[in-house]
Amino acid sequence: MRQGQSLVMTPQLLQAIKLLQLSNLELSTFVEEELERNPLLERADDQPDHLEHTASREADGDFGGDGEGDFGGDNGIGEASEGGESFETRDGDWASEEFATDAGALASSLGTEIENTFDGDRAGPAAEGGGEASFSSDGLSATSWTGSPSGGEDGEGNSLESYVAASISLRDHLAEQLALAITDPMDRLIGHSIIDSVEDSGYLSTPLEDIADRLGTSLERTESVLRIVQTFDPSGVAARDLAECLAIQLREQDRFDPAMQALVAHLPLLAKREFPTLRKLCGVDDEDLADMVAEIRRLDPKPGRSFGGSAIQPVIPDVTVRRGSDGSWLVELNAEGLPRVLVNHSYATRVVSGAASAADKTFITGCLQNANWLTKSLEQRARTILKVASEIVRHQDAFFAKGVEHLRPLNLKTIADAIAMHESTVSRVTSNKYMSTPRGLFELKYFFTASIPSGAGGEAHSAEAVRFRIKQLIDAEAPEAVLSDDAIVLRLKEANVDIARRTVAKYRESLRIPSSVERRREKLAMLQR
What we know:
The chain is mostly helical. The chain folds into four domains: 55-146, no CATH class; 170-307, no CATH class; 319-447, no CATH class; 451-528, Arc Repressor Mutant, subunit A (Orthogonal Bundle), CATH 1.10.10. It is built from 24 helices and eight strands. The chain has helices at 11-21, 24-37, 49-59, 98-110, 142-146, 160-163, 170-181, 185-196, 208-215, 219-229, 242-252, 258-265, 267-271, 275-282, 286-298, 345-353, 358-395, 397-402, 412-419, 423-430, 463-475, 485-494, 501-510, 516-528; strands spanning 41-43, 319-323, 329-333, 341-343, 434-437, 440-443, 451-452, 461-462. The chain has a four-stranded mixed beta sheet, covered by helices on one side. The chain has a two-stranded antiparallel ribbon with strand order 1-4. Strands 7-8 form a two-stranded antiparallel sheet. A hairpin with an 8-residue loop joins β7 (451-452) and β8. α7 packs antiparallel against α8. The longest helix is centred in the C-terminal third of the chain and has 38 residues, at 358-395. It is flat and about 85 Å long.
């Protein structure tokens, strides 16, 4: 026998930890699943204000009737008063003649007949005095005033969605062109197989040999179909690499001469800015080479991106930081990004009291416990995020006031000790969470940076601030005096920043800044233009 202590991770505790590290989008998805699974959970906005507003208008007689009309008590909004006027009754007869006068005034103001102005599909049998249409000749119905879809003879009314073209995918766009360009059934099958292998960026991801083997055809026939597909719009589609993509676009512009062929064949030298070598390979002077490089830059390296692909989900900030009237920083939770759910206790009481078996009571009791725990977990998650964000703002107040140069070194332990939480909890809170500030939108992890020691033993510098200083030095350098990594180290030491050369090179590469040799070539080439 042995006695000991251990931490037991209950399902509820695991759920709370999981909720803490979820992003806004993931949290919304999780809550939606719980709403479908748990009958006791409700959205906080399930009772919209416009329903109450509509019911109050009905009580005042705005949408009144005899209880049998379109706005009567059977529609779930409320009972209509008997003394009010209705838009229409079941047999389509109007209860007021004001609409005829309004229609005549509208026609005179438009300067033409209403039939020529509004969609004629809305006109129904009421033009001859019968039917269910509210407005006969002008195409307006009672549902047009209430915002609900209009019912025509086919049950589908005209709406904005019917006039908006649906976005077409790259595959569908290529398939439409294939149907017109190729008539042979076998070649069309090969073309569809090629189109299916085209990525969202527009490149062909599957080798032609694999496509030919899968279809049981020759490689020559597959290549001939590929050449046809490569003539489709967008220009450069179905290319197998960047050089082929650029070559296709240059051929369509009639600019793929021998000099341009040599340049496209040596794209790695162009990336390294080896302009003297490229001049020799292409047989052109500096001015022609600059024009050729400019043409290359105007081409689209990813022709398929104009068709999108997966929808881009905008980032929703979890926390908002703004300047207060007294000069302090106010930290607030973004209520729009937080899902709001309620627990229907009255419904749980009614179901439990009327349950026929013990299994039903057990099920409702479990749902009630899960619902209560979820609401408490969401509340605890919001409080923890606000607490961590407030502490981050307190430590990085100089950044919000003066800029990235004043970003201070910060680690998870500092925040965890300040708010009396574990480092793992702070790490979960800062994952996939964003803060909206007057200086832009930042991930919470952005404010946690390594420490760079000071040369004179003073306050340490943030790695992000040092990276920003390196970029400033490189942007301000002259073409005839390009700074090497060693020169940048000396400049930083003059600014009381003790840093090694390899660290400067690492930060420069993270900023995607080329070496001093490549920068010198590029800037000299720009001066020669």
